[in-house]
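Notes from the 1:1 (GR / supervisor)

We went over the backlog. Supervisor wanted to see one worked example end to end before approving the batch request, so GR pasted a single chain during the call. The sequence is below; no edits were made to it. Supervisor asked that the structure be written out right there so they could see what the output format looks like.
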Amino acid sequence: MKFRIDRDALADAVAWTARTLPVRPPVPVLAGMHIVAGGGEHSDRLKLSAFDYEVSAQVSTDIDVEEAGTALVSGRLLAEISRSLPPHPVEVTTDGAKVMLRCGSAKFTLLTMPVEDYPTLPEMPPAAGAVGSDEFAAAVAQVAIAAGKDDTIPMLTGVRVEIEGETVTLASTDRYRLAVRELHWKPERPDFSAVALVPAKTLADTAKSLTSGAEVSIALGGTGGTGEGMIGFEGGGRRTTSRLLDGDFVKYRSLLPSEYAGLAEIQTAPFIEAVKRVSLVAERNTPVRLSFSQGEVVLEAGTGDEAQAVEALEATLEGEDIDIAFNPGFLLDGLSAIGSDVARLSFTTPTKPAVLTGKRPQEGENPNYRYLIMPVRLSG
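Structure output shown during the call:
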């Protein structure tokens, strides 16, 4: 194997692929990065792959191939080397059981691993449709914040992806909050319908890393067909697959209130800053209290003999005055995710879920992003 590649192109491709490398590989070869230079119909392409039996990543990029070949080397070491190379073209060659990288006056020699022991990457499921990469990344980021972190309940660590015709709905919950986002996409078939539960961390990392192309192609495996139990994403020469989570997701639509007793509007940026300031005195797991009245909201944290903080902000209120309290971290996550300069908080009672959205949508429309948050019951 012998090829030349631009230093930045190599560093970028290796860094992206290395994200999938397992921290503690179940078998040694999974710590490797699979390198294929040229060969077949892709005579001038470099293909890098990583796989941990759950998630696979593959990237292809242009190279000058002198001699096609395949090798398997330590992925983390290759990533560290690629990142630290001087700004010169890189020449990669194999010599027996070694891979050599030359870049300017720098030269590295890596030992290879047995390439024949490397598992075959899962096949990409059939393409289901495409969505704008920036919008997809933003939507996934809005929803993934509400996914659970507790691996003992795997279902709650996922994002539910519902596809119905031209609408994709993303939803996640950790039982204390729920995030739902709808977006339009271009399905391969107008009547396409599917549901998948994707690990939230994998989905968030993938969506964020596929913004180099204009669109992301989403591929979903059908029952008994290619890629069953898998979801695939492709864009900008990068492709990744993930195994889906099992389990019945909560019937989240029934959690969203159909009507509200009150609605408050606050400027988002000052609200975020005030919550951050007031929550400085909130002991672990203690809430920030919000007292809404006509024209203002008063934020309070801390009680009795502890440190205390109070701050008032302008707010508009439709409905009766209300005192309601939230976990400050959960509230800040939602405020940061709504992507609007106005935060709208809809509530029914101080003990029932409130819903955070952005600016008022057009007449007859539902907001495309909703963040439901459970209040903390106030004592006394």
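Supervisor's comment: The first strand starts at residue 2 and ends at 5.
Batch request approved.
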